[in-house]
Amino acid sequence: MIRAYKFLLRPTVRQAQALSEMLRDHCSLYNGALQERRDAYRHVSRSTVRYGMQSAQLKEIRAFDPERQGRWSFSSQQATLRRLDRAFAAFFRRVKSGGTPGYPRFRGVNWFDTVDFPKDGDGCRWDSTPHDPVTRVRLQGVGHVKVNQHRAVRGTVNTVSVKREGRKWFVVLTVEQEQPKPLPSTGSVVGIDLGIANFLADSTGAFVPNPRHGRRAAAKLQAAQQALSRFPRCKAKDRTANHQRAVEKVARQHGKVRRQRLDHAHKTALDLVRTYDFIAHEDLKIRNMSRAPAARPKPDQAGAFLPNGAAAKAGLNKSINDAGWGVFLTILHAKAESAGREVIAVDPRNTSRTCPECGHTAKENRPTQEKFHCIACGHIAHADTVGALNVLRAGLVRRNANPA
Question: Domain range for residue 339?
């Protein structure tokens, strides 16, 4: 089992400067490799430059520029080139599937925040001073950096990543560990229905309120963004002190909302995993649900468009993104795997329109957002609870059909 640990770094002033230079030089390597691929495709008979060819040039690049490229780990530079190669692989995959391609773009220094070390001991060393009571990670070109290790790392460290978030630095470890001991069985099963009015409704009739962290922070975020908009757009090196503070204030507001969502998702998922042996949820296509509606041109008037409900859909999309369903489901599956619980995703179609008593399915069964009233048998309940019951039944059917 692979698990990730994230710890806060506490570098000195010189170490923080070296970390910033490491990101800058890896960003330069990434952009240079991207430019080489673009030039080769445009000017050399549409030839393709691949990762192996660019990796073979690293020795020459390091020898040519020892101050900026030669001081860093060779393996971390290879990881940066692999990152670009994955971006191109995803681009060609989207082209073949007919989606929006999204050609890889050049990265500014402020948009390149992570450096990967593919193997512990190659350019980096986790807990490099085991006899020191303070945990440290050694990074080539930076030194031994203090780590705020708030919990024990169990297992064998595979990879190490250094990540910048605002003015803070973090180290992220991927660790291979044995399957943990499962939690004691409770004999309980549950189905959950994710929503906007309530973050979650389960098949027992309980509800988890939607905290709406983004909406609660909207006023402060708007004020911070308005203050930032008064400054002209410029490169990071040309920003004044006031401009830089305005940028950091916006980043802090977004970071706080993100941490609040993660905290709520972790606590909700942990409560479900501790209480139930089996959890069923809807297989939501969140990206499709939050997609903006397509424009509707007027057939008899060029340049004019028919109403398509874009304003209302934008508000719904904002609420969906604020709820953070995707993050929650990812955390739920990870916690369930560690606890030995079973989680199954089921088809969400008609889950809130099907009567759990008689099985009748009709759009009229749900007259309002919250109310469910079966037109066949007269059953009345909360629509989200009905949806959770139907999700649970579909999940149990799927589990019994696939006992493996």
Answer: 189-401
